[in-house]
Write a structure and sequence with these properties.
The complex is a heterodimer of chains A (114) and B (112).
Chain A: E1 5-7, E2 10-13, E3 19-24, E4 31-37, E5 44-50, E6 53-57, E7 65-68, E8 75-79, E9 88-95, E10 104-105, E11 109-113
Parallel strand pairs in A: 2-11
Antiparallel strand pairs in A: 1-3, 3-8, 4-5, 4-9, 5-6, 7-8, 9-10, 9-11
Chain B: E1 9-13, E2 18-23, E3 32-38, E4 45-50, E5 53-56, E6 61-64, E7 70-75, E8 84-91, E9 106-111
Parallel strand pairs in B: 1-9
Antiparallel strand pairs in B: 2-7, 3-4, 3-8, 5-6, 6-7, 8-9
The chains are: A mainly beta (114), B mainly beta (112).
Chain lengths: 114, 112
């Protein structure tokens, strides 16, 4: 069964460092999403991406965040200067078909900022 | 996206049927009702989606009354492995659905 893959599974970084989280969505999917989940809290929408541009972003997704799809397969989330409060699990998701709310999520990347 | 309300937590026992109800009073004509399951440290997983009446798959059933202002996710004969958070989402999943929001969900705990 096709799946969304994410790397790394866990990253530890120092505050102020740049982090890139990578995702490989399901190959024929067209809509891509990043979510984050702080430990014990709900899944928060960050950004959606379609046709090589951001469709929508939340208030969390400020100038420190960026996304791109550099090569037609990877979908990356960059955090330019990490803060302690960026520590969370980051989930990538993709969606292939319109008129369905079925997102396919990856296993997540746990980011720990020290 | 329609606002949804669901219980914060529920407890049940193995072998029981569990019903989780979600209220969505301001559901729109084009909105669908979608449920997800999330285990600790994993991404949410799609369970079931429906528009009206009843939908059933190998995992669950979804009951939607005629007014569509609520829905009930039914898990038959639960086991310990059904312990998870269950999310109810309501929205028009067409091309404009670029912002799919998860609420707080229902934390289901299954006991032996």
């Amino acid at each position: 069964e096709p799946e969304v893959t994410q790397t790394p599974s866990h990253q530890v970084t120092q505050m102020g460092q740049e982090v890139i989280l990578r995702c490989v969505p399901i190959s024929n999917h067209l809509y891509f999403y990043w979510y984050r989940q702080i430990l014990g809290q709900k899944v928060e929408f960050l950004v959606s991406f379609y046709n090589n541009e951001i469709s929508e972003k939340s208030e969390i997704f400020d100038d420190q965040f960026s996304v791109e799809r550099p090569d037609g397969s990877n979908f990356t989330l960059k955090i330019r200067s990490t803060k302690l409060e960026d520590s969370a699990m980051y989930f990538c998701a993709s969606r292939g078909v319109l008129n369905t709310g079925e997102l396919f999520f990856g296993e997540g990347s746990r980011l720990t900022v020290l | 996206l329609a606002k949804t309300t669901q219980p914060i937590s529920m407890d049940s026992y193995e072998g029981q049927e569990v019903n989780i109800t979600c209220s969505h009073n301001n559901i729109a004509t084009n909105d669908y009702i979608t449920w997800y399951q999330q285990f600790p440290s994993q991404g949410p997983r799609f369970i079931i989606q429906g528009y009206k009446t009843k939908v059933t798959n190998e995992v669950a059933s979804l009951f939607i009354p005629a007014d569509r202002k609520s829905s009930t996710l039914s898990l038959p004969r639960v086991s310990l492995s059904d312990t998870a958070v269950y999310y109810c989402l309501v929205g028009d999943w067409g091309s404009s659905a670029s912002k799919i929001i998860f609420g707080s969900g229902t934390r289901l705990s299954i006991r032996p």
